[in-house]
Design the sequence.
């Protein structure tokens, strides 16, 4: 495996800090193991997450869509498939994401400030943004930025 170093996969973590303010930072998944998914398959790099009940939603955000200030309905992984979108957190940090980018939305339990609670999001550009959203039935954490690194 010397020629095949352990990979990392960047993701944005939208989280709630100890004061109830949403923030976002870029981290990387890094707990990859080189293994097959079963004995019959060749090994590949896998970063297995803790088991949880989950629901998958395929989403298409239309051109010009804006989701006013809101919290993620539950902790959820969001992967952009096509198009672009932005996420702005209560601390004023705005990030634009495109195809192949990954975000973990975990801004539950924020405290309203200056008309902001959770995050603001919307499409960017002249194309819809398609994504796959995997909502997890887990308890959201508070003030644990990058908890999957």
Sequence:
């Amino acid at each position: 495996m010397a020629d095949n170093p352990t990979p990392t996969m960047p993701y944005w973590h939208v989280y709630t800090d100890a004061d109830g303010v949403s923030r976002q930072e870029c981290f990387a998944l890094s707990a990859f193991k080189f293994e097959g998914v079963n004995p019959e398959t060749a090994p590949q790099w896998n970063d297995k997450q803790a088991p949880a009940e989950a629901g998958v939603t395929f989403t298409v955000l239309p051109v010009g869509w804006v989701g006013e200030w809101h919290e993620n309905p539950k902790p959820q992984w969001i992967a952009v498939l096509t198009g672009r979108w932005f996420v702005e957190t209560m601390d004023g940090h705005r990030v634009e994401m495109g195809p192949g980018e990954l975000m973990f939305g975990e801004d539950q339990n924020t405290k309203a400030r200056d008309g902001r609670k959770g995050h603001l999001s919307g499409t960017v550009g002249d194309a819809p943004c398609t994504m796959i959203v995997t909502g997890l039935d887990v308890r959201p954490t508070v003030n644990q930025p990058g908890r999957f690194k």
